[in-house]
Protein 1
Amino acid sequence: MGLRMMSTLIGWWIYVLTNDPFAIGLVGLSEVIPALSLALYAGHIIDQNEKRKLLLIGIILYFLAVVALIFISGHFIARHLTNHEIAICIYFIIFCTGVFRAFTGPVFGAMIAYIVPRNDLQNATTWSQGTYLTASVSGHATGGFMIALAGITGTLIATAVLIIISFFFLFKLNPKPASVMKGAVRTWESVKEGLRFVYKTKELFSSLSLDLFAVLFGGAVALIPIYARDILKVGPEGFGILNGASDMGSILIVIILTIFPAKKKQGKKFILAVGGFGICIIIFGISKIFLLSFAALLISGMLDGISVVVRGTITQLKTPDHMRGRVMSVNSMFVNSSNELGQFESGVTAKLMGTIPSVVFGGSMTLLVVIITWFKSPTLRKMEY
């Protein structure tokens, strides 16, 4: 929840400082460069080290990043630096959080299988996504309201408090031992083994690839600050609601899937859900009515929730324990980093085409990728678990 509040705040803060959609895209680029560059190495390190320790170190580093942002948001910096210089400082801190995320993101995914028995992994994945999405929507919405009520500094202080609380919860977990003996495998051989496994497991590779391109082109969420302030004119409160809309939809569908799990034709449902997501993005792009925009994002979140649960279940069930760190790192390259790449793509296309055409273009490209996957990946289309 704290990290979602921070990402919501950063998008708004950068746009206030620069009034430039491209500047919002640079936030994603600042984080994705280190996250992508270090992902494969991080997977090797995760498999060779105690996982709870890595996770706690990452949480501490996130806390220090928020403290740095609190300092930057203060009156002292505002008096001595220009808006452009403050934005550069923010980009640098976000770059650092990208380094942290390269390690902490895969650790979270890898630890589920060490906590939950294998027979319960499918249901545990659904619960995991549900709790994550609940935190995500509450973080998005609370971030928007906090900006309006307490300003940037107040929102960052609230974020720091939430991160401290999370540290104490995670500290109570039992240590999670290394998956392989330290030093038993050379780093590059270990990395190649993880990549080969993902590539050869066709259902896994196809689902990750589809998710990558869908999020890359359908990253309309990155431009919500522009829609909220300039197109729909709903201010920070409306910004918070719109930011949380897709996650609200995801939470709703995850609850439904927890009670009534998909038991047949999961692969086909996954592809169709991504296609519906693209259609919703197009509707959001052309809408100038707040309720219609909210509904489009809400339904897009429901469809995205289906794809997240199916893909997450495939990843957990297909991955052997000794390779979880490396596979989850590849997963983070495809899925998590695609959010920031999508944010950058949205910023660039908004700069070149204009905000509305760029969002419509992104949704249309998502539909094209879905059509190609439907015909080119029969293994995924016919997959059931």
Protein 2
Amino acid sequence: MLDPKLLRSDLSGVAAQLARRGFVLDVAGFAALEERRKALQIEADKLRAERNAGAKAVGQAKSRGEDVASLLARGDALGAQLLAVEQQLDLVQAEITKRQMELPNILHPSVPDGHDEAANVEVRRWGEPRAFEFTPKDHVAIGEKIGMDFESAGQMSGARFVVLTGPLARLQRALIQFMLDLHTTEHGYREAYVPYLVHARALEGTGQLPKFEQDLFAVKGDPGFYLIPTAEVPVTNLVRDTIIAPEDLPIKYVAHTPCFRSEAGASGRDTRGMIRQHQFEKVELVHIVRPDASYAAHEELTGHAEAVLKALELPYRVVALCAGDIGFHSAKTYDLEVWLPSQQRYREISSCSNFESYQARRLQARWRNPDTGKPEPVHTLNGSGVAAGRALVAVLENYQKADGSVSIPTALAPYMGGLKSLEPGVG
């Protein structure tokens, strides 16, 4: 949520900032609502003052032994008028809040201009793509020989699901354990185990609702739940309705969870294989920081996700997303894209975003600024550290051999029980 004070003081400026995204702000509608709110607030304050003055007059009249019937009647009338005005004020404020919740975040000045991913800017690359002496296969052709089963998954759940068995399932588990160990022992994160089902309020707090409801899986019941689309949701909600002492910042969490997405906006894209699934595993990094430290934290968080790919010796690049391709609630995002030999291009494996105070305002997540002594919104950041399914895809493709086997990356050897490679027919 944007700062309501900013919307009231510089609505045109906010509209100009949001226009970078291609978002058209209804300036006239917002302005009319704000004028109505102010008028009702003034009227409510006036009626409240009159009612309070009347109550005082009743007390004084009683002390003098005077008849107070007319004063009491006036007080009742003022109370009824005040109630009616307050009800109107609540309705107007609810509409303002609804519109505020539908606004995207303001972009950081360093975000490149542009309308779509073609305008994203490469920041750096690491590693050289391997030169194969044979035509590399994609992860599906490799995986189906060693324990990747789309047919069984399709029979029980439909498209965009997979079953992994044997050493291949162990390889995915090894990736997850490796990432958790790396982030907790070397990068200073606190591991968290969190619910996979959350209420709508949690998703509103992090910005998935109301904008992206079609991308979520709702679970019917009373109360209703949603399956989490990312661990970002429950982990960031850990600081909801809190005031954090400055000495307790920064807070850095890492969590492994399954993630569930309907992929409603991705119809027809990446239908083959594990690139875009309804259910997938992810190791998520979340930072809660002081506002003046958030962009340093953004670079740090991105570096921690990069460390995973470096340790796995997977070539990748870092891309700064442009204004038209960035997430709805992000102020700035870096995507990490890993090299896939079968596609001869880089594909996203992690998004690392700074939301500034956007989520914190929704969550009422604050810290006590020692310079002012007042509670102020913290800044929140998160990033995949990294997506386990896509990391598995990248390992299968980059470590494949001509005979269909797959070498185990050195970093994963301690987690694989002595296995040196995955062999066809052993899944």
Protein 3
Amino acid sequence: MSTTATAPRPFFQITGLRLRLWPILLAAILMQAMLVPARDAARWVFKGHPGWFGHQIWAFVVLAELFQIIVGLTAAFVLRRLLPQADTHLRWPPRRSYAGLALLIGIGLGAAMLVADYWPELLHHAAPKNPYELTPLGIPGWLFAEGLAGPNEELVFRGVLVGMLAVLVPGRVQLGRIDLPVAGVIVGLLFAAAHYESFLVDPFYQAFAQQLYAFVWGLIYVWLMERSKSLLAPAIAHGVGDMVEVGAIMALTAIWG
């Protein structure tokens, strides 16, 4: 009688990788092409007709996000035509939605961002830097704008970019029990890079923290997308996380300001 020992599964490994540089460069270009022109168009409309928006900055943010959603949907449509194998996950979850888990994750992410961004103020019970209007119109307006960031950015980053790179740069990354596409890791890095402007306006510790958690959060969003087979769960987690942090900033400003 003989027995065959099963080799232990490595803690970290990369399998099936076909690394090519040009699709990554293409993804970086597409990221800018989907985000920057839409934001610039919203800025042009807002500056030309500020009265249309009641001079509310959050209205400009919402307008930019809506333009980016339109561009993202167009890019997803073109991608499916040019690369039919690409899965943009633009569907209702076919089985389990993971919406409840995404909600809890979003709350945790929002709390973590608040601590990472404002720990000196929290330690000294000082009001965080607050660019948000604490008015009857500004509070719900900013919360809506932050929530809309979820479907907006998940469509662009996880839907279009991960969908494209999963075909053009195939491969999987395993770390312990976590198994993600290499495309998700690459786009996580691009997602962090998209926040580079924070180094120009924020303290270094805050800008560095934003780069770090933007990358990690991107991996979490990919995991939710793959588990649910849909963009719904990552969009919920992303939007709720942003809403929680901004809502907490507003509350702390009211209390400590």
